[in-house]
Each structure stands twice: as structure tokens, then as C-alpha cells.
Amino acid sequence: MKNSPLNPGVGYVFSQQNGAFSLDIQYPWTEDYIEPTYDPYETVHPYKVINANASTFEVVPGTLNNLPTLEDGTQGATPNWLTDVPAPAIDWNWDATTNKSYVYLVAGPNTTTSVYPSPDSTTAAYPGVGSWDHTFSSTDSYGYIMLAEATLDNLTGKVTVTQYVTGSLWSDRIKLGTSTATYYYARV
Amino acid sequence: MSEIIGSNTVYSTWGAMRTPLGVDSPYASGTVKSVYGHNTEYDKGFTATAGCFIRTSPYYNTDNPPPRFVYQDNTPPGSSPTNTSGLFYMWGLLYDGNLLVQDDYDQLAGETVTMTNGTFTLSVDAWDAVLGGQTVSGGLGSIVSIGKLTAF
């Protein structure tokens, strides 16, 4: 059997010495081939922002008062559930000055029954996750809890996510007199 | 997955152990609070400073209306002002002095109750509605403020 010759390619060379061939890798492996390093204490949890790039991100499915969550703005006939496969790629909304974006879980009382959070996934008050270029204060109609905050490096396109909420949530809405309603959250 | 504490109709976070205090007559037809699924709206009442709620007894069921302050004017119609009398007490479905935690009872006793037509000092007698509560003057009108509590 005739052996095929093997030619050196980019980044490595062959050499022969004392009757043996050597393969010399001249360059380190590029990042694509490096086994990713990760924090052994880092775990995936509900409402974790993952797979973030400069344009989109995904969120690990979580529940608010046992209700599975949508991509905010898709409440209606064709909802994008966080549990969809593939997961919805949610658009970032970046503040053009600070390069920051804020990921919120938004929910409110049903406008007809006042049940909170609205259990009707066709209503805007049904729990949804989205990204905004500004922070929110809760209103009588909607409670906002910040799941994570992200910063975009304009030069490299790298997105750094600071995660604040680490699990599914239970929430109550309480309104005193004419004051703006307050939303209370507990992790479950 | 289910609720942590509390019930499936009213609040179930830490608020299940706390509540604003109402101000009303136990026999009033007006709504002290409206309860929807995990959404409670109080018409009027009191909180501690900065909207903080009051710690309730572990026995208090927040499905019930919140504990409330009641002024009961016992002035007979047409009687002389010198013969008027009234009662002031905290009312709730547990009316044996177990509505709040003891520390909050202690904080409230001695506070000044301001009515539309006068003032008096809140005494511990007000905690026991079964015994009639605290005897005060009649004709005092409505409860306006109670010491360190904040009205809403």
C-alpha cells in the first residue's frame, strides 16, 4: 500500500530528524477550538439571560405565579413562549449613550377581572420578558422587576450581563388608597 | 410548584404576615378592601411610616378584612353633650387581642388619636373588643390620625 504524502498547512510544520517526523504546532489554538472555561458554581436557572450577543438574547424559561412566561410584546394569537424550541431570540434595546439595556419581567392585573398577574396570555398584562433602553417604575397597570442588566462594548460587540433574579417568582399586588400599587416578589 | 405561604386568593409573599390597618365600622357596608387573585386594594387605613405594613399575628388570616380601628359613638340622639360616651377599639375576626404581634401593640399604646372633634390617648383597653374596648368621649366624629401611623 502506498502512503499519501502529508503536506504542512497553516500554523504547523513537519520536520525530520533521526529518522522520525515531528509535527510542530506554531500557533495556539484559536478560540473556536478552546474548550470553554466556566465557573463551576455557575448554574442555569429560571430567568437567566443566556446566549447574548449584540443583537439578541435568550432567557431560560421561568414562571410568575405558576404562569409560564412569554417574550413581551407577543401576547396574542402567535405568542413566543420562552419554552419554545428553538427559544425566542429577543432583541436588545440599547441606550445609545450608556450602551446599557435592562431586561424586565412585566406583568399586571387583568383589566377585566383584576386578577394578578393576568392569566390570559392574549392580554398585554400576561407575564412577559423584554429588553428596554431605560429603567421602569411600576404603575397601577404593570409591575416591573429587573431580571438582568447588560452592557454592550461597541468596539468588540461583547455583551456583559449582570443577572439579578435567579429563579421563578411569586408576586402580589397591593394598592393602598390612591397610591400607586406596589408589587411584591418572592423567589420560588 | 405552589404558593410559599398564605392563600391562593390574597397575597402570599412576606405580605401574608403583614397588613395595613383599616379604619371603619365593623358593620359598615363600605368596602375596606377588595380582594382579587393576588391583588388586594385597600380603600383607606393606616400603615407604619413610609408605607410599611403592620405585622399581624401568625393566627391572622389575611383572607379576612384587615384589623381596623373602630370608633363607636354611643351618644343617644338628643342627649346632652356631657352625657355622651364612645368606644374605641381594634376590630377583626380575631378580637381577643391576637390581631397584631405584641411589639406593635406596645408601639401603638400611648399614641394620640386625633378625631375630627377632639383627641385622646390610645390605651391597651382598645385591643380587646370583647370587653368593649377603650371608653372615650362621645361625639368625637371620625378618626383622622393615630400617632405614629400614616393614614392613606
Note the main attributes of this structure.
heterodimer; A: 188 residues; mainly beta; three-stranded antiparallel sheet; 14 strands; 0% helix; elongated; B: 152 residues; 1 helix; disordered N terminus
**Sheet with the most strands: spatial strand order of chain B:** 11-8-7-2-5-13
Number of helices of chain A: 0
Mean pLDDT across residues of chain A: 87
So how many helices of chain B?
A: 1
SSE ordering of chain B: EEEEEEEEHEEEEE
Main beta-sheet strand count, sense and barrel state of chain A: 5 strands, mixed
Helix fraction of chain A? under 10%
Encode the helix/strand succession of chain A as letters. EEEEEEEEEEEEEE
> Structural class of the secondary structure composition of chain A?
mainly beta
Across the major sheet of chain A, the strand order is 7-10-9-11-12
The counted number of beta strands of chain A is 14
Instruction: Give me the Rg of chain A, rounded.
Output: 25 Å
What percent of residues of chain B are in strands?
A: 25-35%
Low-confidence stretches of chain B: 1-10
What proportion of the residues of chain A form beta strands (DSSP E)?
A: 35-45%
Q: How confident overall, as mean pLDDT of chain B?
A: 77
Number of strands of chain B: 13
Distance between the termini of chain B: 35 Å
| Main sheet summary of chain B | 6 strands, mixed
How would the global form of chain B be characterised?
globular
Distance between the termini of chain A: 67 Å
